[in-house]
Amino acid sequence: DVLVAVGKRFVGTVMEELLSKFQPGALPHCSVVQTLASLAASNVFGMVPFLTSILSTMLPMLGMAKHDAMRVAFCCALQHFSESILEYLADLDQAPDPTVRKDTFAADMLSAYDILFNHWLQSREAQLRLAVVEALGPMSHLLPGEKLEEQLPKLLPGVLALYKKHAETFHVSKSLGQILEAAVSVGSRTLEPQLDSLLAALHAQICVPVESSSPLVVSNQKEVLRCFTVLARCAPDRLLAFLLPKLDASGERTRLGTLQVVRHVINSAASQMEVKKPFILSSMRLPLLDTNPKVKRAVVQVISAMAHHGYLEQPGGEAMVEYIVRQCALPPKTEKLGPDSEDHTADGVRAISISTLYLISTTVDRMSDVLWPYLLAFLTPVRFTGALTPLCRSLVHLAQKRQEVGAEAFLIQSNSNVALPSPYAITTRLLTVASQPYVGDGRGAASLRLLNALHRSIHPLLGQRWATTVPPLLEHLDEFTEETLSQKEWEERLLAFLRDTLAVVSDNTWICQLSLEMCRQLPCYTGLPQEKNFLYKCVGTALGAASSKDVVRKQLRELLEAAGHQEEAEREGLACCFGICAISHLDDVLAQLGDFMRSDVFRKSTGIFNIFKERSENELEKLKGTAILCYGYVAAQAPRELVLPKVESDLLPNMFRYFSTK
């Protein structure tokens, strides 16, 4: 080590000393050979000029070396000599002697190769076999091209056979990669017949379970993937014909290993894979259906690579985007596992999907045309509710990008092959989920930001107004937490925002469309009483702002008929809706309630329907409850001077008629 350190500066002096201990015809001391090897590694420019004479002295010694330790030292020297020659040739413009050529060393390397491959590689000693294989990798680049070509049919099977003999396969894979690169660089024709055995052996290596604790196993995977890159560049058709059918195999290890290779070649052999995109996309069909979390993770990583290389613009790309959104919508697990096991759970899949969606929306420019406006289609279906926050964040980013490009590009063009939600549906959905603002990783703030970003598409008049009304809502959420926020006050703020929005738009047709869409979305929130209750309040607010009496009456009637009167929260929500609507439309609300109470729903069934008598008695009680509750809210909310005259003529008679109850 001291000699190597000094040799970095004073290579001539050190070599003079060393070569006196390295004479032809006598085996040198093991450490002399090791020192020469280390010097070659640490001072490339200083040592390469000496290598011609060192090699001519050393080659006859190889036959004299009988002990494994000596042979290992020679292998190590040949490996480092070859590596430093290759490094010297790669930086020839900076080298002290630019006349050095590769073929200067070809004959010496060939003789050394002959001894190492044909004699020493057969040794029983594992350490020697590994030292030989490590040397063969870089040496293969220095063999004369025609000799390498001639040797490949023996050399590759010889190296592949070592996979079976050694547990630690890193050095075998590394050397194999170097030999394959050398073979491709001389345009080898003998590689072709060996592809099948190569692919099978490499695939078996990649499917070994990775114990992340062992760095050599991880390094081996990297080297195996490097081999796949070489093959992907020189024989893409053969590689894919071998790989893609393996995606249909159901075994976890096979599928995981294959997905890893697919992802790697998408990244490392992009130009060769360009024309293969449709095949690669269609071969993902079965992996997309796999429910194993480890496989899901790997699929998401493949899709991420595809996004960066323009696969998702192809037909079939949208299925990949939908897959990511579906994983983002997985319900988060509450109990946290240990730090190591966390990754492969559904939570791990959800986390990597969320970060992937955000990454491809914000950093991959070519993806913005794929994701916009397509991602809007996932906002309204209930099954994607879990993905709302990441969706909103990505969409806000995409919308802002669009606005920078210019207004025309930004308006939501309805895409022929994707059913996009209407502006009314988007508004209803985002407002409703904002009522539970801290659920799903801050859904309230994310949905309000998106609503604001889409203002131009929702209504042309809203931009300026929302610029002043949305930020205070977001600030309010920042000031509080799920525990400290007053739900009642928050809902009142949102309803005030809605009232203000309707006043700015003040277009009856638009408002009626919005209230109709709100009624249409009510069934989506069955089982979510708080959101549904809030949506009822929104319906009342929208109907209150509508000027068309017919629409108001028709929608109130439909609400009464469709409501689930069995649910306490639903009766409460419906009554709130009537109360809010009565502020502007007292007469219509009372007329509608009166009609409802006189309708067939309230008549006891007779005759043939007596079988249902018990059930209908109970239902009737609940209906009465709804009606009376509605009157209560109407009386509380409507303007006092309008309600008082109606109390005796309208409210009380209807209520008393149904007050008798069991």
Shape: elongated
How many strand units?
0
Global structural class: mainly alpha
Rg, Cα atoms, Å: 38 Å
Beginning-to-end CA distance, first to last residue = 100 Å
Task: Label this structure with key terms.
single chain, about 650 residues, mainly alpha
Account of the protein in words:
The chain has helices at residues 2-7, 11-20, 30-42, 44-64, 68-90, 106-118, 126-140, 145-165, 170-185, 195-206, 215-234, 236-243, 252-268, 270-273, 277-282, 293-308, 317-328, 346-363, 368-371, 388-405, 407-410, 423-433, 439-453, 455-458, 462-479, 487-505, 508-521, 529-545, 549-562, 568-582, 586-598, 613-637, 640-657. It has 662 residues and is mainly α. The chain is elongated. Helices cover 69% and strands 0% of the residues. Among the domains are: 1-143; 147-209 and 216-269; 507-602 and 616-661.
Can you describe this structure in just a few lines?
Residues 143-662 form the MROH2B-like HEAT-repeats domain. With 662 residues, this protein is mainly alpha-helical.
